[in-house]
Amino acid sequence: MTTKRIFVLASMALVAVMLYLWGHSDGREGTIAGPLSVSFAAESTPEFSPVKARARDFYSPNSEDLQRNEMRLIACGTGMPTARPKQAASCWLLELGNGDKFIFDIGTGSAERIAALQIPYNYLDKVFLSHLHTDHFGDLDALFVGGALAGRQKPLRVWGPSGDTPERGTKYAIEHLRKALTWDLDGRQGLTDPRGYHIEANEFDYKGMNQIVYQENGVTIRSFPAIHSLDGPVSFSLEWNGLKFVFGGDTFPNKWYGMTSTRRMPTWRFTSVSLPCRT
Fold first, then answer.
1. What pLDDT sits at residue 128?
2. Considering the domain boundaries, does residue 114 fall inside one?
């Protein structure tokens, strides 16, 4: 192989790598890619606020500013395990006036709905799973890898219940999801910012009664058992600033669900349902 040919091939490879990086460097903002340094700048000041609305040419549920004392819930998925073009499976995004954002379930198809909201992925790093049916966590891989590609510069943190055996718990599921993505993740080494390609499994006892599983920044999230399929499913309650959100996941009526609203505060209760939808 001549020196000239080697030079041409090396130049083509370099251009391909640069184009790849350019195409992913600014996807988190939904705009034309900027300088590569923007994507790789460590903990730079975010360009978009977690509570202020941004200019759009279409309506979105987060098109209004979120006030400091407000809580906003966006249904990103309300469907069933069977795929439907206009309805993703269970996924609920809860936004707080302090800037925190929490994803409750990440069912099949919901990662696309989250991406459409154009929220910088650095703000979308906390996921709470009610159980491990695919219509409740089937798009976790898309949020994990896609979020890192689109600019999340921190690990994706996942909370979920244990099972009646270790193999039926959240930790086992996350570890093996990570293994299933080995080829994908290995192929991105050296080409993209590596900080987002880490996933943390925070498993807790599914039998816990109103147990605290998360407590940061004035936000307290508790879990309690749900009645659905095998042992392991849970429901969640979140309290912040005198407001309360209760997420049932999939469950039959039970005494624990009713007890979550005993405290006197404004409460939203949600249980996963399939809503009518044109397909």
1. 98
2. yes
The C-alpha atoms of residue 154 and residue 125 are separated, in whole angstroms, by 8
Instruction: Please report the beta strands in the chain, taking only residues with DSSP state E, as ranges in sequence order.
Output: 71-77, 91-96, 101-106, 126-128, 156-161, 199-204, 211-216, 219-225, 234-240, 243-247, 267-270
Q: How far apart are CA 92 and CA 241, in angstroms?
A: 20
Domain count, the chain: 1
Q: Whose CA is closest to 197, among 135, 146, 231?
A: 146
Of 231, 225, 221, 226, the closest CA to residue 207 belongs to 225
CATH of the domain at 224: 3.60.15.10
- Domain, as residue range, for 86: 70-270
pLDDT tens, 34-75?
333 343 334 454 578 888 888 777 777 788 899 999 999 999
Q: Position 4: which residue type?
A: K
* Residue 96 in domain: yes
Sheet with 101-106: strands ordered across: 71-77, 91-96, 101-106, 126-128, 156-161, 199-204
User: Does 223 map to a domain?
Assistant: yes
pTM of the model: 0.79
165 lies in some domain: yes
The angle, 0 to 180 degrees and rounded to 10, between the axes of the packed helices 170-180 and 140-149 is 50
